[in-house]
């Protein structure tokens, strides 16, 4: 960003210097017809001095604040008004340009670079008012010609267009910096993945294999090593674009201004040798609070599988991204539940499903459907509408 800003301010300085040369030519050509010729040369002196001062001052980023911008605009405003005293009323009525001519546009450009199109248009309006005051002071308001109006319009367009271009350029540079950052992160991830694959993953795979062959307590150790291997493979296999959304990510329309987080990596992080997680290839963004609550509900459902279905049970997590809602289902191949089991658990104070799963999803404006039967496993389907989520969190 510093490189872009420096280039923009250099461009303003170059324009200011070239416009000064043009103003000097115009003043030198018209000075013989001025009511106060010395006044014209005095204005040229002010323009020259301020061109040098502004060029040096704008080089320092710490000085590009309101005092310098206000002084820049005040100098341009005063030099325009000086035209009413230096020029004759007849020349002003005939449409002769103001003393600084196009030099004053440098102030508009400076404001546009500093604050975008809004400040650029504001500066243009102030200097446009100065042009109108010249005619009012000289008593030629009724004879204001197209030259003055054209100058005011050009100032307005300069502030608007340059301010918009500057904003777009800064956004493009920010996106480029983000792309470079992601590329560097991808390369680092790939480097770490190669080293992990060549060392840690191979050791875990060997422990899993040898533990299964040895049996007994070693088999349990092998099972744990296998789960860690699967989780680590999922972690290093996730691309850089599947992580949580950056803190500076813009809110989506209708989110109430909350930052978004990709739900997919929050779920894939819970994968293991006994848990398979399937997500779309593209990110599934949700408001950060909602995404973490859904992930916590899934974690609670998987914890129930581990507690009640035994060590050999498997679970499958499926994430579906619909146009207006997000659906997550957790299915296991455990023994299932008899009818009324959840109601009995809630009545006896065991509120894992009622609070950790249903309560979380309900607070997000979603619904939970649980289908289970003895010997057929259990499936928990959680559906969260995007718009309801945004309005509730």
UniProtKB/TrEMBL annotation:
<feature type="domain" description="Histidine kinase/HSP90-like ATPase">
    <location>
        <begin position="289"/>
        <end position="388"/>
    </location>
</feature>
<dbReference type="InterPro" id="IPR045975">
    <property type="entry name" value="DUF5931"/>
</dbReference>
<feature type="transmembrane region" description="Helical">
    <location>
        <begin position="121"/>
        <end position="142"/>
    </location>
</feature>
<keyword id="KW-0812">Transmembrane</keyword>
<feature type="region of interest" description="Disordered">
    <location>
        <begin position="238"/>
        <end position="261"/>
    </location>
</feature>
<feature type="transmembrane region" description="Helical">
    <location>
        <begin position="98"/>
        <end position="114"/>
    </location>
</feature>
<dbReference type="GO" id="GO:0016301">
    <property type="term" value="F:kinase activity"/>
</dbReference>
<keyword id="KW-0902">Two-component regulatory system</keyword>
<feature type="transmembrane region" description="Helical">
    <location>
        <begin position="7"/>
        <end position="27"/>
    </location>
</feature>
<dbReference type="InterPro" id="IPR003594">
    <property type="entry name" value="HATPase_dom"/>
</dbReference>
<feature type="transmembrane region" description="Helical">
    <location>
        <begin position="65"/>
        <end position="86"/>
    </location>
</feature>
<dbReference type="InterPro" id="IPR036890">
    <property type="entry name" value="HATPase_C_sf"/>
</dbReference>
<feature type="compositionally biased region" description="Low complexity">
    <location>
        <begin position="244"/>
        <end position="253"/>
    </location>
</feature>
<feature type="transmembrane region" description="Helical">
    <location>
        <begin position="39"/>
        <end position="58"/>
    </location>
</feature>
<dbReference type="InterPro" id="IPR050482">
    <property type="entry name" value="Sensor_HK_TwoCompSys"/>
</dbReference>
<keyword id="KW-0418">Kinase</keyword>
<keyword id="KW-0808">Transferase</keyword>
<dbReference type="Pfam" id="PF02518">
    <property type="entry name" value="HATPase_c"/>
</dbReference>
<keyword id="KW-0472">Membrane</keyword>
<dbReference type="Pfam" id="PF19354">
    <property type="entry name" value="DUF5931"/>
</dbReference>
<keyword id="KW-1133">Transmembrane helix</keyword>
<feature type="transmembrane region" description="Helical">
    <location>
        <begin position="148"/>
        <end position="169"/>
    </location>
</feature>
<protein>
    <submittedName>
        <fullName>Sensor histidine kinase</fullName>
    </submittedName>
</protein>
